[in-house]
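A common beginner's mistake is to predict each chain separately and then try to dock the pieces by hand. The better habit, illustrated here, is to supply every component at once so that their relative placement is modeled jointly.
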Amino acid sequence: MKIVVCIKQVPDSDKVTIDRATNRLNRAGVPAVMNPFDENALEVALRLRDAVPGSTVTVVSMGPPQAEAVVREAIARGATDGVLVSGREFGGADTWATGYTLALAIKKLGPADLVLFGKQATDGDTAQVGPGIAHHLGLPVLTYAKAVEALPGGKALKVVRATEDGHEEWEVDLPCALTVVKEAGELRIGSLKSKMAAKKAQIPVWGVAELEPDPDLIGLKGSPTRVTKVFAPPVKTNRVRLEGTPAEQAEKLVALLAERHLV
Ligand SMILES: Cc1cc2nc3c(=O)[nH]c(=O)nc-3n(C[C@H](O)[C@H](O)[C@H](O)COP(=O)(O)OP(=O)(O)OC[C@H]3O[C@@H](n4cnc5c(N)ncnc54)[C@H](O)[C@@H]3O)c2cc1C
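With all components supplied together, the output reads:
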C-alpha cells in the first residue's frame, strides 16, 4: 500500500500566548512542533505499513525551510521518506491554495492508495485542507477516523469514524483519503534504525520549478479568502464563587439556578 501523510509544522500551542493589545499570536521564541493530529495520522500509516507487506509511508509538508524538521522527525518515527514543499511564491496561501499546492506534490509522488491528514491543524484550525486535497485528487474522503484497519487483500479499509454522539463503521475501497483524530493512537517513538535513517535522509525541496503550478492559483494571489479580522474572544468575568461546606455550596447553587429560572 502506498501511503502519503500530510504533516504541518505548527507553533507549540501550549506555549503560544495572545497579545491582548494587537490580538495577534506571540510567536517569538515559541518552538515549532509536528501538528499533534498529524502524529496520529502518521501512526495510522505506520500501523497499516506494518500490517500490509511492501507498503511505504511518504510524508509531505508545506512550509518555510525550517519545516524540514517535521519531515525528518517523521522519518525518525518510522516513515519511509518525505518531501518539503517550500518557496516564497507559496506564502500567504489560504486553505484552498494550500490544498491545491499540496495536491500537486502528492500527484508528483505518483498514484497513492491512501492519503492521510490530521483532523485539523492546531494553529489554523479550519479542518479544510484534508477534504480540499481529496477534492483536488478526486478521492473519496472519510473524516474523523479513530480506528483504521486494512481488509484482507489490502484493497479496502475498515474505518471507524468518531461522531458527536458515538461512532460509525465504514468499509471504503482504496484509493481514498482520511482525516484522523487523537483516538487513532499515539505516535510511536521510533527505532534506533529509523532515527539513524532520519539523520542521513535527503529531503527533496519542491518549489514552483518542480511542481509547475498555475501561478494564479498559489500563494496569496491564488487565495480566494481574506482574513479581515483576527481577535481573541473577550474573557468573561461574571463568575460567582460559592463559599461554605459542600452541602452549603450545593444549596446556594440550587438557589442561584432557581433565581435565574434555570431549574
Ligand atoms: C487569507 C488567508 C491568508 C493566509 N496567509 C497565511 C500566511 O501568510 N502565512 C501562513 O503561514 N499562513 C497563512 N494562512 C493560513 C494557511 O491558510 C493555513 O496555514 C493553511 O492553509 C492550513 O490551514 P489550517 O491550518 O486550517 O489546516 P487544517 O485544514 O486544519 O489542517 C488539516 C490537515 O491538513 C494537513 N495540512 C494542513 N496544512 C498543511 C501544510 N502546510 N503542510 C502539510 N500538511 C498540511 C495536515 O494533515 C492537517 O492536519 C492564511 C490563511 C488565510 C485564510
